């Protein structure tokens, strides 16, 4: 599924006209109380003066209603500024948008804004002018990447700047294995652009559509207990700041700001260029196997230390643990020789059969233009299955069991280049919460990572949460970027990242709302019972801001315990005093004493 920033013209006017149809109906009910009914019409003929007065009254009442209606439509459909004290009403939510107004949403469709301001500079000079003009006018231009963050951290109704057109590889140093790029380049484009030099990135997140600037600013990560999050690969940066113009920072040049800005959440400047430490391009062997918790506990330390990349996928309401490891192909042995027990078609057939069975039980007739189920991937089939009854625990358990069987039949090896192997099909639109917490060192793991999972699974079963699979667990080494959830001053510390999920496999607004409510119940259970216990903090691209004031204050206080909030806010004041690069989410997470 292509995950990308959605920038679209609103096409809701059709719905608006549909809603107005009942209001302009010309049918006249045959009601004796209706002034235009036959009975009333006959009686009015005997009194011309009364008829004239009634006609005049109806005319002026009509004019008044028209004026009031027009005023209300204008008021409620006009987009207020982001800092407006009142909330926009929803009465005319289907009103057509002005030509210059666009809707921008993240790929999951969980967050969206409407804006008139969406800059896409093509050069550094154009970007500098955009930032300078916004600073002088004190208008917001929040940096936004590919729009992949589940929480929409880059979105701002007041205005945005996107560097998708600044996507060039500027310089390759093959000897030092370094590359300098414009930050609007997507991960896949970067990898394709440097592979001819025999280079690639040290690690990858699950998907490849992110812009480099965005993936670094939110502290994204891959997996491998010896490999740090991706921000640690940054050697130097070029920031375009509102107050100080374009500045270059590195470990040698302003190291304090450099480390702070590597995971700066887009609040310290627009990242225009980055120099990244790369590694030699290499083929990896991916091994997928199915285990259980008892076996994992016995082999956990070995799995972490002996594999370059490793992750676990847990299936709720089962003891199944899918273990995926990736390591360089041996120069001496070559890739392993393995004949799978099941073909890819055989591995997925039982999922197709389950879908057909569920359709029959639900008496659902497949839509004619639906794809043939034989053409669907496993994740697409899972979405269709869940869409039939996403909040019924027993149904979700049945789907989870089918997933466990799918992985069992998919055991085996796969060989490919690292950028091909390390990706992961995350499925369709979804809500996700991912937490990061310390788990000891590589030589002495605390085993807190497995305890956390056991607690999550017990919580799911006790509260009968309709939790779909998988619960994904990954690991990284630490980073020196203080705003990263995996930051540490101890070089040998390792961190675990655990993601819980609920899919949004439907376009039905009411059903999506119900799934959203259930997900936040699920998330809150983990928050209340586990986060403090394990010193767990959410990924910046997945943290959601509470609406409740007390909960928000508690979150702000909690963030202060883990991150250098004062240093971050001080840098924001110096580099962006009018906070034109901010948005509501950033303002609520890191409030300052003054306002724009």
Mean pLDDT: 85
| End-to-end CA span | 39 Å
- Radius of gyration using CA atoms only: 28 Å
> Which regions have little confidence, pLDDT < 50, spanning 5+ residues?
8-51, 75-95
Question: Number of DSSP strands?
Answer: 21
Helical stretch tally:
17
**Classification by helices and strands:** alpha+beta
Principal-axes shape call: globular
What percent of residues adopt helix (DSSP H or I)?
25-40%
User: β content, as a range?
Assistant: 15-25%
Largest sheet, in brief, is: 8 strands, antiparallel
Task: Identify the strand order in the major beta sheet.
Answer: 17-14-16-15-19-20-18-21
Give structural notes.
It is a single chain. The chain has helices at 13-20, 38-44, 48-77, 124-137, 187-194, 212-217, 255-262, 293-306, 344-362, 378-388, 393-409, 418-421, 448-462, 509-534, 549-562, 565-575, 584-589; strands spanning 6-9, 102-105, 112-115, 118-119, 142-143, 160-161, 169-173, 178-182, 199-200, 234-241, 245-250, 270-277, 279-280, 283-292, 309-314, 320-328, 412-417, 430-441, 471-477, 493-503, 537-538. It is an alpha+beta fold and 596 residues long. The strands form 5 sheets. It has an 8-stranded antiparallel β-sheet, with helices on both faces. The protein has a 5-stranded antiparallel β-sheet with strand order 7-8-12-10-11. It has a 3-stranded antiparallel β-sheet with strand order 1-2-3, with no helix packed on it. A hairpin with a 3-residue loop joins strand 10 and strand 11 (245-250).
């Amino acid at each position: 599924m292509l995950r990308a920033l959605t920038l679209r013209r609103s096409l809701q006017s059709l719905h608006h006209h549909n809603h107005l149809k009942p209001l302009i109906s010309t049918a006249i009910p045959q009601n004796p109380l209706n002034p235009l009914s036959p009975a009333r019409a006959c009686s009015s003929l005997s009194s011309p003066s009364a008829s004239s007065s009634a006609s005049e009254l109806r005319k002026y009442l009509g004019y008044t209603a028209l004026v009031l209606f027009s005023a209300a439509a204008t008021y409620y459909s006009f987009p207020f500024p982001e800092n407006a004290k009142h909330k926009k009403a929803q009465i005319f939510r289907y009103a057509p948008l002005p030509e210059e107004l666009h809707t921008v949403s993240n790929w999951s469709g969980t967050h969206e804004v409407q804006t008139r301001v969406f800059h896409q500079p093509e050069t550094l000079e154009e970007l500098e002018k955009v930032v300078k003009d916004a600073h002088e006018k004190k208008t917001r231009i929040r940096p936004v990447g590919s729009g992949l963050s589940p929480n929409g951290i880059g979105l701002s109704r007041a205005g945005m700047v996107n560097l998708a057109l600044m996507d060039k590889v500027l310089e390759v140093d093959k000897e030092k294995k370094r590359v300098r790029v414009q930050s609007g380049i997507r991960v896949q484009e970067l990898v394709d652009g440097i592979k001819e030099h025999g280079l690639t990135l040290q690690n990858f997140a699950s998907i490849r559509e992110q812009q480099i600037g965005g993936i670094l600013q939110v502290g994204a990560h891959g997996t491998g207990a010896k490999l740090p999050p991706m921000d640690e690969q940054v050697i130097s940066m070029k920031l375009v700041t509102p107050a100080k113009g374009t500045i270059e920072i590195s470990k040698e040049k302003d190291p304090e700001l450099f480390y702070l800005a590597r995971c700066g959440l887009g609040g310290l400047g627009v990242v225009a260029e980055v120099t990244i430490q790369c590694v030699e391009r290499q083929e990896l062997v991916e091994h997928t196997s199915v285990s259980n918790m008892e076996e994992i506990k016995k082999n956990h330390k070995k799995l972490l230390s002996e594999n370059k990349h490793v992750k676990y996928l847990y299936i709720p309401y089962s003891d199944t643990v899918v273990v995926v490891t990736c390591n360089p192909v041996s120069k001496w042995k070559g890739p392993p020789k393995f004949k799978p027990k099941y073909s890819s078609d055989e591995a997925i057939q039982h999922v197709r059969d389950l879908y057909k069975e569920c359709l029959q039980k639900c008496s659902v007739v497949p839509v004619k233009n639906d794809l043939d189920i034989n053409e669907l991937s496993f994740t697409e089939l899972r979405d269709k299955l869940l869409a039939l009854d996403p909040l019924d625990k027993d149904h979700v358990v049945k789907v989870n069991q089918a997933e466990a069987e799918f992985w069992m039949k998919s055991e085996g090896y796969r060989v490919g280049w690292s950028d091909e192997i390390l990706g992961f099909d995350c499925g369709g639109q979804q809500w996700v919460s991912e937490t990061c917490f310390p788990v000891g060192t590589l030589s002495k793991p605390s085993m807190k990572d497995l305890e956390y999972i056991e607690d999550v699974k017990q919580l799911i079963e006790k509260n009968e949460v309709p939790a779909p699979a998988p619960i994904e667990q990954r690991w990284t080494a630490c980073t020196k970027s203080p705003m990263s959830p995996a930051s540490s001053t101890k070089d040998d510390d390792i961190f675990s990242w655990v993601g819980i999920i609920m899919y949004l496999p439907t376009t039905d607004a009411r059903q999506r709302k119900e799934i959203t409510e259930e997900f936040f119940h699920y998330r809150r259970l983990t928050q209340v019972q586990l986060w403090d216990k394990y010193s767990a903090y959410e990924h910046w691209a997945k943290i959601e801001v509470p609406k409740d004031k007390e909960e928000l204050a508690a979150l702000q206080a909690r963030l202060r315990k883990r991150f250098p909030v004062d240093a971050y806010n001080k840098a924001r004041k110096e580099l962006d005093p009018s906070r034109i690069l901010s948005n509501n989410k950033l303002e609520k997470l890191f409030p300052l004493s003054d306002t724009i």
